[in-house]
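Fold this sequence, please.
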Amino acid sequence: MDQRMQFVTEFDSGLFTMTELAEHYGISRTTGYKWVERHDAEGVLGLADRSRRPHHSPQATDSRLIEALVALRKRHPRWGAKKLLGILTRRRPDADWPARSTVCDRLKAAGLVAARRRVPRPGVPVPQPRAAITTANEVWTTDFKGEFRTGDTRYCYPFTLRDGYSRFVLRCDALLCHTEGVTRPCFERAFTAYGLPERIRSDNGPPCASVGLGRLSRLAVWWIRLGIVPERIDPGHPEQNGSHEQFHRVLKADTARPPADNAAAQQHRFRRFCAEYNPTRSVGRRRAGDALSPLAAAPAESTATPRVSRSRGNPPRLDDGRRIVASHAVCVRGLGGRTHRLRRSRRWHLDRQVCHGRPGSLRRASTPDSTHCPVHCGALAGFAGSRLNEKDDEKNLNNC
C-alpha cells in the first residue's frame, strides 16, 4: 500500500508521465490509472486490497439449510456434523443438504465448535491394532464409566455395553457396585434381546478380567462357555477402545452434570438418554436399529455333566482322556455335583484358555454344542455344556 501511495504522489507532482511511471514500477498504464482513480474517489483507503469474493455463487449452500443445522446444533451442542446431517436428512429427504466438511466449516464459522488445546505427548510405541469390525453383533464393547456420587452420597457405577459396528447402546445401567454377581444379569438381558456376539472387547479391570491365571475372571469364563471370545485392550491404552471412551464423555455430559438424586433417578436419565441417542446412530443410510438385527436367542446351556474319572494322586480326566485343570475362575463339577480342586499341576495359557498337559497335544474340541460354543481348547470343552448356578458358583469359589 505504501508503494501505491508513492506512485500516486509522483503522478500528482506532474514531473512524470503515466508511461514513465508504469515502466518504472513494472505495471501497465491501465493499472496505474486504476490506482489514481481510486485515490481520487476514496482517498488513502481506496488503495487497500479489496475482497475477490464473487457477488453471487450458484453453488453456494442454501442459507435456510445452514440455519436449520445451526439451530439443531445449538439445541444439542455435543452433536457432530455427521449426526446433524443424518437427522435432518431423515426429516427432509428432498432437500439438497451439504457435505459433512461444509457443515463443519459453517459450524466453526458460527462459533459453535470449541478448539481443543493440544498437549504435546512424548513418543510411545504404537500398540497393535485390534481386529477390524465388519458387521453388527461381531464385537461388543463394554466398560464401566468412572464412578460418581449421587445426591444421596452413594456411589453410582454406570455400566455400558455397545455394539462395536453400529455404536448402538445395548445396556446402560446405574449399578451400585461392579462385581460379577451384579454385572452378569446385565449381560444376560442383552444376550436374550440381541443374541450372542463373537467377541466382547473390554479393559483389564474387574469384573471382565482378573490378576489370576490368564487374567481370566468368572465373567470371562462364562463368556467362553457361551462361545464368546474375550478380547482385551492393551494395558494403559484406552484409545484401543476409543469409541466407547468418547461415548462415556457424551454420557457424562448429558446425564451426570450434575448427578441425579439417587440411583433410580440416574437410571431414568440413562433410559431417556439412550432413547434419544440410539435412533440417531446410523450405518450408511440406515439407522443402527436396522443394522443391528437381533440374532437367535442365547442358547440354553445344557445341564448334562461330563463324566469325570479320577485316580489317586492324578488330576481328573474325562471319558476321552482329556485332563482338566481348575483355578479360582475355572472350577470343574464332577459326579454328584462335587467340585474337584487340583493342585501341583502344570498350567499353560493358550488363547485365553486354561489347559493341563503339553501344549502340542491340545486340539480343537468337538462337542455337541460346538456351533454355539467354539471353545479353542479341549480342557474347557469338557465343561462347556454344563451350567453352574449362583449357589454352585459361590461354593466353587470357596472350595478353590
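The first strand starts at residue 139 and ends at 144. The chain is about 35% helix and 10% strand.
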